[in-house]
Amino acid sequence: MLPLVLYDILSELPGNNWSANPAKPRFALGYKELPFVTLWVEYSDIPIAMKSIGAKPNKRPDGSEVYTVPVLSDPNTGALITDSYEIACYLEKTYPEKPIFPNNSEPMIHAFNSAHESLIRPAIKSIFARCPEILSPASAKFFVEARSITVPLPWDATYDEDWEILEKGYNTAYEWYQKTDGKWIMGDTLSYADIVIAAHLLWYKRVLKEDEWAKISSWNGGKWAQLLADAEKECNLA
User: Fold this and answer.
1) What does the radius of gyration of the chain's CA atoms come to, in whole angstroms?
2) I need a labelling partner for 45 at 20 to 30 A (CA). Which of 66, 107, 113, 173 fits?
3) Of 153, 202, 194, 193, residue with least CA distance to 9
4) Phi first, then psi: what are they for 74, rounded to 5°?
């Protein structure tokens, strides 16, 4: 089997990876034990790079097109897939071993994904404010220009109200997990729902200041730092 190719975003951090959306297929590929390589793309080069390989653009809420990563290329089938959720569905259909949508749970997990997004979206400015700090100057400028289209400036990482909203959101997510019998949202079996949560936690850990990540790590009795560590181990990324 030829390695799959994951397009991810370059950063100035050790190991490069930082962004939540490319982290989702990275977790899924690791969990399914599929061989893959990463091609790192400067944020400012995403439109040119994705056009050059024939990737499809995504749609903004207003209907305009935007080129994004992750993109996954599978040389074993010739498939080229844009969007983290579409990649997850492709991997599940093409490589069904170790399912990430167990027990026909794809519709439920799709709803979970949207619900989680609605929890964190109102607080996203404080996280976005940190992202340019770990990118090259050209990519930092491009990030602000691209992201401020849908999340208007100003962004402030120290805005207390955002942190209160984020903590409230994870209090709700904690209640979801409390209703299960195991450490994962579906009990003892990891699913794409847990990957979605873990990918965002990885994003926070990578871009936030140490004291800011420590704050999130302390919420709900340390639930979120532990979930990230468990997911990385389960997905062979530790």
Assistant:
1) 17
2) 113
3) 202
4) -115, 100
Q: Predicted confidence band at 64 (pLDDT cuts at 50, 70, 90)?
A: confident
Q: Provide DSSP, 3-53.
A: PEEEEEE--SSTT----HHHHHHHHHHHHTT--EEEEEE-GGGHHHHHHHH
pTM tops 0.85, yes or no = yes
| Residue-by-residue DSSP string for 132-197 | GGGS-HHHHHHHHHHHTTTSPSP--TT-HHHHHHHHHHHHHHHHHHHTSSSSBTTBSS--HHHHHH
Tokens of 32: 């399914």
71 DSSP 8-state letter: E
Q: Tell me: the pLDDT tens digits for 91-134?
A: 999 999 999 999 999 999 999 999 999 999 999 999 999 999 99
